[in-house]
Amino acid sequence: MPNNAGPNMDSTELIRLAQSPIGRKLLTMLQESGGQELHSAMEKASGGDYRDAQKAIQAFLSNPEAKALLEQLRRQ
Q1: Does residue 68 carry a pLDDT above 90?
Q2: Is there a contact between 14 and 57 (Cβ–Cβ < 8 Å)?
Q3: Cα(12)–Cα(54) distance, rounded to whole angstroms?
C-alpha cells in the first residue's frame, strides 16, 4: 500500500485524512496538548524561526498514542 503522507499529497487527500476518525483524534489530541503553543511555533517558523516549531512538534510526537495514530494514518 502506498505511503499517502508524502510531500506531494494533494489538498483533497489531506482533507480526507484530516476528516478520518484517526485524523480527527490526532487533531483533538493536538489541540488538547498545547495547540496554541504549536500555532505560535508555526507562525514563528513561517518567519524563519524553526527552533520553537521543532520543539512543539517533538513534544507532541513523544506521546506514544500520537505516534501510533500517525502510523495508522500513514498506512491509510
Answers
A1: yes
A2: no
A3: 26
Place of cell 506531494: 8
d(CA 41, CA 1): 33
E strand or H helix that includes residue 59: helix 51-61
Residue range 3-61, pLDDT digits in tens: 444 555 678 887 888 899 998 998 888 888 777 777 777 788 888 888 877 877 787 78
Q: Quick one: pLDDT at residue 22?
A: 92
Cell of 72: 495508522
Domain boundaries, given as residue ranges, for the chain: 11-75
Q: DSSP per residue over 1-25, as a string? A: ---TTSTT--HHHHHHHHHSHHHHH
